[in-house]
């Protein structure tokens, strides 16, 4: 019987996934090597390699140089989440976008901000607080610090009409960053700007981004109570 | 002068990323086609294709069949987050893992659960509530519904000692799912099980997973106040 050959890495990935899900290959078990799989599937070894690497990236296989590839004992599934520009997120919900600058000033960083950004205590920073709204209802507070290396006096003027979130995307590209998700109880500051009750549960995103090794900015986004991020695994 | 050739898709990706970050290729601008880039880089067209596709997957390029490839106007960055088994997450923090089953029963689904799982009102479900703890401190409530198709009476016995989170990973593989992140104020139920104050802000993960088209389970994980997920972009 002539076996059907698998033409591309996606179909190899699918076949390998089927074998894991059907328990033909069980958790912890060593799977055949790439050369043998390539022969079985009638495809190039590089095609098998790409499929296995993709499944390893997804946490379903454990690959060890020399020790071979095993089905993961404790699969760590991954969820990939989009991080859109806030204006675009609000427009995509079908709402009218609004922006209010609350404050913007040049200063030196408070200790926790200096630590987050890896700055000297006397370094220059810009501190901006603004509120993005959807249909005239507060949506999220953007509480942001930017290293002043990246912002000229002319740029400061812009923040009256353009959020730093949006300005940074088009003016200062970042190469990497850290992001964290948590929940906080709204204090007086949050309750006043979001128009919510004191103590209400708010979803929070903390994000620090770098251009190569230099920190550009750190931001805390505090969403109005009820906010929810949906994604897929 | 002989140009250095780019041997693999990763080095092509890096060069393209440099051109985007340095603004040699600006947001919205059409970039050269794959054949021209392959010639310039001295590599196969398929190598260029893989690099550009990867950058498009990351939201940095917009690819349109026939219309060519442009630098994204509004890059949508993505964050990839690991979803470990709760026991492993707690152990990885260096804490001792504990598990308490609060309740487990067979019933029919309440309307919101039937809707989430796509079940008939009379379908059989298992409802399990348990608490995972770290160093004897409540860490997260697992409030879970499982379609009874996947659970035998023998399996029910297991939940006294093994969380459904862990049991499902090793017994019922899933192929896809939805996941959402939000924040809630702890009510009486959450405050009692987490040992926190009424109204404290809790981080919440809602997850519904399927095996092909059939829903296996839907779970709400309610974390003790102060919980935070860290990841990278």
From TrEMBL, chains A, B:
Coiled-coil annotated residue ranges, if any: none
Iron in keyword set: no
UniProt GO molecular function: DNA binding; DNA-binding transcription factor activity
InterPro entries from the UniProt entry: Bact_HTH_transcr_reg, Chorismate_lyase_/UTRA_dom_sf, Tscrpt_reg_HTH_GntR, UTRA, WH-like_DNA-bd_sf, WH_DNA-bd_sf
The keyword Aminoacyl-tRNA synthetase appears for this protein: no
Record key words, sorted: DNA-binding, Transcription, Transcription regulation
Annotated ranges, domain HTH gntR-type: 6-74
Name assigned to this protein: HTH gntR-type domain-containing protein
Protein source organism: Hyphomonas chukchiensis
